[in-house]
Amino acid sequence: MLVTMDIEQLKLVWQSAWNSLPTLLAATPVTLGFALGAMLLGLPLGFLVALARLSRFGPLRWLSSVFVSFMRGTPLLVQIFVIYYGLPSLGVTLNPIAGGIIALTLNAAAYLSETIRAAILSIPHGQREAATSLGLSGAQTMRLIILPQAARVALPSMSNTLIGLVKDTSLVSVITVVELLRSAQLVIARTFEPFGPYLMAALIYWLISSLLELVQRALERRFSRGFTK
């Protein structure tokens, strides 16, 4: 089947995309807020889960492993449904914003925990022994020796997690959160022209991801200089 599109159709698509831009830009801070909020909450939770995974206490290690396996092994969309639509049957009712943030945070924490755990394990064990010989406690060794080096190792993966979160925020549109994708859908419901708004939404997602990639590279260069001096 031959698909053709004349100049007038292209103009209509571009006009539809351009007209949707103010509405989409107004919803973009919501998308960024969800992504950054989930990252800021997920990072300390992921660190605690990583420590639990490295713990010598068997039950704690097992529970944290089950958490990571479940969150990484089930779709984020299903997790959102369980938290927002499932918890009310247990007497816990959340508004869409809280439900979305909790789901994104738990999902991000699972992935971040594996990143942090791998980064900690990448530090040679001899450095721990050297710190012990200098009289540093376990907590001091972790804070002063292990974590600064592990942060440099984990930075690319953590940045990728944040970029992934920006895109994953589109899933909270299913629980009526008016973020970027939901905003595009509302525009389409008014105009009955889907291509332009969806294309503009995709371009905004791409622009945000590209900017975060630039920040990631700048941070990596900064860390590299710091460790090579």
From TrEMBL:
Name the principal localization, coarsely classed. membrane
- Please tell me the species this chain comes from: Deinococcus xinjiangensis
Indicate the transmembrane segments per the record.
24-50, 62-87, 93-112, 195-215
Signal peptide as annotated in the record: none
The UniProt keywords, alphabetically, are: Amino-acid transport, Cell membrane, Membrane, Transmembrane, Transmembrane helix, Transport
Q: Does the keyword Iron apply?
A: no
Q: Which NCBIfam families match?
A: HEQRo_perm_3TM (TIGR01726)
Q: Give one Pfam family.
A: BPD_transp_1
State the protein's name.
L-cystine transport system permease protein YecS
- Give the SUPFAM superfamilies listed for this entry: MetI-like
